[in-house]
Amino acid sequence: MLVVALGQWAWTFVPTPSEARSRETAEAPELSQGASGDASDLGPVVPHIEVEPVPGRDATLERAIEEIGRMHAERKR
User: Which of 42, 62, 52 is nearest to 14 (CA)?
Assistant: First the structure.
């Protein structure tokens, strides 16, 4: 687990089970053999990010999330 704090914001990065397995198989390639006998059984690595709100900052956090969503939608156009 990795915790990153930036000012009033804090992010906790928790590896998914597939990400943890990917890390294990990188260290021990013989573990990468799955049911089909190859590394494809591990599936894609999907990052899991949890944002932990700071007490008293919930409204600010919600506004920031909405703004990021709007910026992302504009960028996709």
Answer: 52
